């Protein structure tokens, strides 16, 4: 079985994931992985922020509204990549030392399957573009822009999916430095391409959509240099994907995918509730807040992604004290970075909002100024929850990880949006996220404490 754990811990202690455990402590290794993953995820999120800024300048508040309406599609693309990438990479880490024959063609199978699925999805999105944008909440003021934007960015879907798979596997193959380089190269390149299409040749929102196509393509080009990594175990094989392997990977990656998809689902429901309570400017304000959240959560996600391969590896070797130490270091780093993020956002909230308010809309400023401090109380809990969910995946607790993701993104959050909106209006909508994240942190903390207590007894 792909998910069967390694049974001989002694054989894997000398060399794992490209590092000599005798010369590098768990704490230093966590810092090594986390620093590179935070740099990579933060780099990618900076492109999102700059793209949002460019759109606000070129297309104003309605352009921001259009972007926010279509944004859930990117969560679908990313979610599919994470579904197979995180789950497949976890299986890869659990087996690469003791049972490499089990995962010889897994990477290739997942890449081929995801690319094929992405092409089919892109075709369907183009055919049904009009009903889809109507479903997403477009009105007469935003419908035409949304249709054009959706039809172009849909073709980036296959590339985003395989890019996420490649990043996760290469990171777990002991080469986090390359994934960092790929993401930073992608970010710097696409920012220039974005500017050229939007302002250089004056394509505005259509230019931003075209630039999206280059983003994962550039990352994949850099990641292709992994074949020169001397300690790599990844191999490419032209194979027909096996549904059993797809299922095994998806089962472990479903929690990460649901986390990503929950962002898109929450954006959709936020948009609709805000349109009922207010107008397009409230949605634009939420667009500003949600894009800032992408940067903040990218930092937290970088920490979680740095912890995951190490926790998987140590769990596969039955080194449970090292598993606990990995989590402890992750929690300390997560809370430290969350505190810094919160202080910056509260202290400089008006300048940060005005960066995206190129049209100087007083309504957008008013909504965002009130919403931002309430919404980002969640930063501490959100960061811990991302870590908890990926950690549970790393130690093979797929069911617990899945349960937290379902509670976090759907069962608690969606009712909270509607109930708190009824009770406190727009302020209640902003408060739905910190309320949900706090509840999930309490539940996740209890689950992980019980899991670690059981492991240490064993």
Automatic annotation (TrEMBL):
Predominant subcellular localization, coarse grouping: membrane
Topological relation to the membrane, as annotated: Multi-pass membrane protein
Compartments, as annotated in UniProt: Cell membrane
Spans through the membrane: 46-70, 76-98, 110-136, 148-170, 182-201, 207-225, 246-271, 283-310, 331-352, 372-395, 407-424, 430-449
Signal peptide coordinates: none
Protein name: MATE family efflux transporter
Keyword terms of this UniProt record: Cell membrane, Membrane, Transmembrane, Transmembrane helix
InterPro entries referenced in this protein's UniProt entry, alphabetically: MATE_fam (IPR002528), MATE_MepA_subfamily (IPR051327)
UniProt cross-references to PANTHER family, sorted A to Z: MULTIDRUG EXPORT PROTEIN MEPA, SPORULATION PROTEIN YKVU
